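JOB MANIFEST
job_type = single_chain_structure
chain_count = 1
residues = 93
[input]
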Amino acid sequence: MPDAEQALAEIEKHRREIDEIDKQLVVLLNKRAGHSLVIRGLKPEAQMGLFDAKREEEIFEKVASYNEGPLYNEYLREIYSTILKVSKETPAV
């Protein structure tokens, strides 16, 4: 059973890496949300509406331009659609 033990050890190694990446993602998502909240607070003064479809499309295009895989652009768009939705629903502090 050494192959099974090796596979299990490799799985645990990758899971530890994923846990570390998840920790970094949470920090970055909260940082992003903070900037989004500041922008939301400034929009009325700048005489801008709260929703900007053009800006959202720009975000999707930029994210796609950064993509080197293995995720498909359509999956990144889905992820970012959710991030943007949550950003809009997050109450200002």
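[summary]
The first helix runs from residue 2 to 42.
The chain has a mean pLDDT of 94.
exit_status = 0
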